[in-house]
Amino acid sequence: MIKDNLKNIFIGGLSGFLLALSLPNFFIPFSFLVGFSLLFYLIERHSTKDILIYSFVAGIVFSIFSFYWIVFALSYYGGINLIVSSVLFLIFSFAYSLYTFVLFSFIGKKVYQKYSFYGFFLLPFIWVFLEFFREFFPFNGFSWNLFGYMLSYINPVAQITYYTSVYGLSFLVLFFSVSFYLMVFKRDYRFVVLNVLNIIIFTLLLIWGNHRINSYTDTGKYYKVAVLQGNVDESMKLKPTKEINIKIIDKYIQLLKQAKEKGADIAVLPESALPFFPYIDSSLKDYFFQRFSDIKIPILSGFDNVLLKEDGDIDRVYNSLFLIDKDGFYVDYYSKIKLVPFGEYTPFRNSFLESIFTYLQGIDFSKGEGQKLLIYKDMKIASLICFESIFPDFVSNFVNKGANVIVNITNDGWFGKTSAPYQHFEMARVRAIENNVYLIRAANTGISAVINPVGTVKSFIPLYKEGVLVEKVYLSSGKSFYNSYKMYIYVGFVFIFVFSLFLVYRLNPK
Fold first, then answer.
1. What is the pLDDT of residues 322-346, one digit of tens each?
2. Rounded to whole angstroms, how far apart are CA atoms 278 and 334?
3. N- or C-end of the chain: fewer Cβ atoms within 10 A?
4. Cis peptide upstream of residue 124 (ω within 30 degrees of 0)
């Protein structure tokens, strides 16, 4: 009995490991087929009580290999010792596993008990429902590493996100996995035929996607946009001195000069790029704008935006993106709405926890007032600050306000040379396809890039490299099938689920 339990725990762990290998920056092709098959195997053959344990193990292992960078961020830059950081990460992993793998497996087991193995065809719908729910809960949502990104790196296949968003790819990942599992374990010719059909569908997607990519041409109005990557070490930002801040400003002044020399119409700087507060007078602010006045180029730059009360005390702090004209005047700014829980704000303030984790002390960032486009000439910019780029529905709502380009600023220096910057980049890249617009991404330490509406990376600056890239960015309508008809897509998905439920019931009523 103990030996069997250990074997099944191992199978659960192997399932989570193989699923993690399908994501950036591993991207081992189609390892999710085996990963999910092992999980389905456990669901089919074991009791509800046992599957809760085995799926919990699968979720923990998946989290360890997918989100291990959390430990790095907490310990290296958060000032928390490695043991405590690891404990906090395990708490996160427990919660993530319960919220995703365990909940999914519990529902999967109930579906199997009612409809036998035919019920497995309902699981792709269930997984997508759970992923969509993650856009809004817990806290501000956590749509990081949706399973559609297991296929999105194959850019021709990723083109379907123009119609379905990344959730359509997540559905394919689960549907292909269910078909593969049933073919291997049921040895029924019908499932062999189904897998052959899946291969044909996948091949057709590749052909169509390649045609869509190759037939895309840039047309209409464009601007030459410079993306600046300062490659500023995070330790300089955490323990700044006046000398360090002047070095940071000098670095960006030199990069702005390069952008101007390359003929850029506008330059984009990363999140919290410049080390002063826009509305508070300081010698650093004067130092920057005195030098900026000689360059004469409009900029978009991230700032920690501190607002003061009349008595001089801090009122609010925003994470903002400012549009500044060539003469140094503030045109407008957008403030981040989707804040990172326990990073930019503490959901449940507790003096005891703050005494243990000192990084939780201090003033929380305030939530921005709403999605607001920044306008530079004909550019109508949907601004995504860091974390906001991972939410498909949030981004599509933003673009639907009339945007014809997306600007994503971020600081992935917190993550070091882990998988996180690659994961974050891939999620942002897919937003360009989903919304049919150019996406300009400026990151402190990488990956900075300009991405066209079919997801092709026109140019990029890799991790831990300083530089300037200048690309023509064409303005598009910002209209895709997904963001134009997404409510119909969501409702249609529910109707297809109900119809599939009816078919499964007819095949195996109980």
1. 999 999 999 999 999 999 887 788 7
2. 13
3. N
4. no
